[in-house]
Amino acid sequence: MRVLAIESSCDDTAAAVLDAGGVRSSIVASQDLVHGPYGGVVPELASRQHVLAILPVIERALAAAAVTLDDIEAVAATYGPGLVGSLLVGLQVAKGIALARGLPFIGVNHLEGHLLAILLDRPVPFPYLGLLVSGGHTSLYLVEGVGAYCMLGRTRDDAAGEAFDKAAKMLGLGYPGGASIDRLAAGGGDPGRVRFPRASLKRGAYDFSFSGVKTALRQYLLDGHSVAVADICASFQEAIIDMLVGPTLKAARALGVATVVVSGGVSANSRLRARMAELGAGAGLEVAFPRFAYCTDNAAMIGYAGRARLLRGETHDLTLNAEATLPIGVADAPVVGRPA
Ligand code: KG4
Ligand code: ZN
């Protein structure tokens, strides 16, 4: 089945074509230059930019796959969670194509896309632990199969990527700042130079919290220090990574899973990759990361999840609406899952 997939949940406009052979094309138009001056995503600008980009991006995805709409057999699109004005653009275009062409349509949960993105590159046996770390989400899931997700823990406040971006803004490194912090830290920053606090939560063994370390950085900068920016970046990054690694390894041990998959934009972080791989090896765990292009937002992962569901006969009605807070892996999720 040849599927056209569309993703527009936040600030990337993306389209992909997938068939039985895998990903035929995956195009992403970033809006970083639009939002950069504001130090964060401006929802109104994001949806307007999606409107401008969506059709050219779809056309590029079709051309790169050497197909036309005549060759497409089904359409998949993200319907949540995300910014509602952004979601609506991709979703409505996807439903429009499905209606005009009489094609089956499936809405995909963005988080499901991230959790399954690894499967675009290689098979991973279920169940695996999915650590999802992005700009909007930081959560831990037991992934038991396509559509079978159990949320084990989540952030109580900021997402890890949000903490990276806010830290980068305080340090004057631009937006989005996660990659800049990674780069500066990797260029000789000392992770032990500043001891930032690590939150330890009494309830919710697998939960995360990043607002404390963010406040600690703000206070540290206000106090005025002559420490090199690279050292501050490395130390801040190390605190975030410690707080991601701790609950993940604890859950892997408690549930007896053999594989941990780290996905979402922050999984591009080089130090997180190295630390997770090293600690995983020590604990007898396999740690897998999607390739960089499938870590950050993309439509290939939406196509993978959508196609898997379409192949087992699932479709959505064209009345499906965008849902800004669409959950996954909890009792009230529309996606089949086990209560946490
Ligand atoms: O998954 P994603 O593209 O979009 C969301 O769904 O949020 O993730 C974007 C986030 C941003 O916060 C960005 O700063 C962070 O991923 N990020 C990184 C790195 N590359 C991207 N954070 C730390 N280190 C990186 N190398
Ligand atoms: Zn994402």
Structure report:
The protein is 41% helix and 19% strand. The chain has helices at 32-35, 43-64, 84-101, 110-116, 160-170, 178-186, 211-223, 229-255, 270-282, 292-295, 300-311; strands at 3-7, 12-19, 22-30, 74-80, 105-109, 128-133, 138-145, 148-154, 259-263, 286-288. Mean pLDDT is 92; it is low at 331-340. A hairpin with a 4-residue loop joins strand 6 and strand 7 (138-145). The protein folds into two domains: 3-115 and 295-311, ATPase, nucleotide binding domain (Nucleotidyltransferase, domain 5, 2-Layer Sandwich), CATH 3.30.420; 126-289, 2-Layer Sandwich (Nucleotidyltransferase, domain 5). By secondary structure, it is an alpha/beta fold. Residues 110, 114, 134, 264, 297 line the site of zinc ion (ZN).
Entry summary:
The chain has 340 residues and is of the alpha/beta class. It has eleven helices and ten strands.
Please give a handful of descriptors for the protein shown:
340 residues, alpha/beta, Nucleotidyltransferase, domain 5, five-stranded mixed beta sheet, 11 helices, 19% strand, binds 5'-O-[(R)-(carboxyoxy)(hydroxy)phosphoryl]adenosine, binds zinc ion
